[in-house]
Write a structure and sequence with these properties.
Blueprint: H1 2-14, H2 17-82, E1 84-86, H3 88-91, H4 96-136, H5 148-193, H6 206-228, H7 237-262, H8 266-297, H9 299-319, E2 354-356
Antiparallel strand pairs: 1-2
Length: 358
């Protein structure tokens, strides 16, 4: 621009005075065009470049966070799947040892899924912290705050902030459930592993049987006491109440059975066993219905799927910024399995369906 001014002065000095005004006007027009071109570039092209810059940084950050959350949701889906056992596998078990042999692997698988969930939750938290700044850092330049491209970046950054906030809330809630259910499953394992009366030989003396029953009663009383100390996740409160009911049924049964053996009351033994089986059958169907309700309608299920939709929308909005292309064509639920079936009517689960590890 300085060189253009010097050239203008030299030309003006060599021309008659009457033509100096026209040269000045012509150079003035040229300068105006240059300024206008610069302004056009600044206000029209720079916002798009800023948007491209944000998109190029935010896109991989969003992908890292949403990918980590996908792995968290996958652990929840795996937990639901691994917590079920086909009823036909339990119905033909010949004795308690066979029953235990079939159920313990289901408990193991559910506990493994919860352990994997713990690790996925921690990694998702790390991903959020590592990428929070990139998702919030919208580039700016003087006088461009109101441009459409920059406003779209601001909107995407606001959406990302809201998504991260809701994601962190979900991780806290899911983490609370994982902590609770790890303890609850361990109590269920103890009801199978720590009892001894089921393993007695047919020729065991009354003294041995009475001692084993007393031991099992103490075990179940301790398990019930430990369960009372748990703080269930809100989604698991119904299951918790039913599991506590099972503990109470078992304690009452062992109290009645121990008393009947001590008094050599054969009829009392038969009544205790029949009452135990009847009560257990009734609560078992309610547990299966409660688990089906949890699997389909829990807040963890609803929020995880809502966050999956929100993640897709966020990724699409970032992908379209600036000179970006078309949004991703991923399915709405990011490849997750369909929702589990609704709970059976009447709180029962008949036929050869599936029961929960609880």
């Amino acid at each position: 621009m300085q060189q253009l001014g010097e050239l203008t002065s030299k030309v003006k000095d060599r021309l008659p005075a009457s033509r100096k005004v026209w040269v000045t006007a012509g150079v003035g027009v040229l300068i105006a065009l240059l300024v206008a071109g610069t302004a056009y570039y600044y206000f029209d092209k720079v916002p798009e470049r800023l948007a491209d810059d944000y998109r190029e940084r935010a896109q991989p950050s969003a992908d890292e966070v949403t990918g980590a959350m996908d792995r968290v949701y996958a652990t929840f889906d795996t937990y639901l799947e691994d917590s079920l056992i086909p009823r036909r596998e339990l119905r033909n078990a010949d004795d308690f040892e066979e029953y235990k042999r079939r159920v313990l692997p289901v408990i193991d698988a559910a506990q493994d899924a919860l352990k994997a969930a713990d690790g996925a939750i921690e990694k998702a938290r790390d991903a959020i912290e590592a990428n929070r700044a990139e998702l919030a850092d919208v580039p700016s330049a003087p006088l461009l705050g109101g441009s459409a491209s920059v406003e779209e970046c601001d909107a995407a950054a606001d959406s990302a902030a809201g998504y991260l906030e809701r994601t962190e809330a979900f991780l806290r809630s899911y983490g609370r459930f994982v902590t609770y259910d790890q303890k609850a499953l361990e109590l269920t394992r103890r009801t199978l592993v720590d009892q001894t009366s089921y393993n007695l030989s047919v020729d065991a003396s009354l003294e041995v049987i009475s001692g084993a029953l007393t031991h099992d009663l103490e075990v179940m009383q301790e398990i019930r006491s430990d369960r009372l100390d748990l703080h269930p996740h809100p989604d698991a409160e119904r299951l918790y109440d039913l599991e506590l009911e099972v503990d109470t049924i078992a304690v009452d049964y062992l109290e009645d059975l121990t008393a009947a053996f001590d008094n050599l009351d054969v009829l009392g033994i038969g009544r205790a066993i029949q009452s135990f089986l009847d009560e257990l059958k009734g609560v078992s169907g309610r547990i299966d219905a409660a688990f089906a309700q949890f699997a389909r309608n829990s807040s963890l299920q609803r929020k995880s799927r809502n966050l999956g939709h929100e993640a897709n929308e966020l990724e699409d909005s970032i992908a379209e910024l600036g000179s970006g292309g078309e949004p991703n064509e991923d399915p709405a639920d990011r490849g997750r399995p369909p929702l589990p079936p609704p709970a059976p009517p009447g709180g029962t689960n008949g036929g050869d369906g599936e029961g929960s590890a609880s």
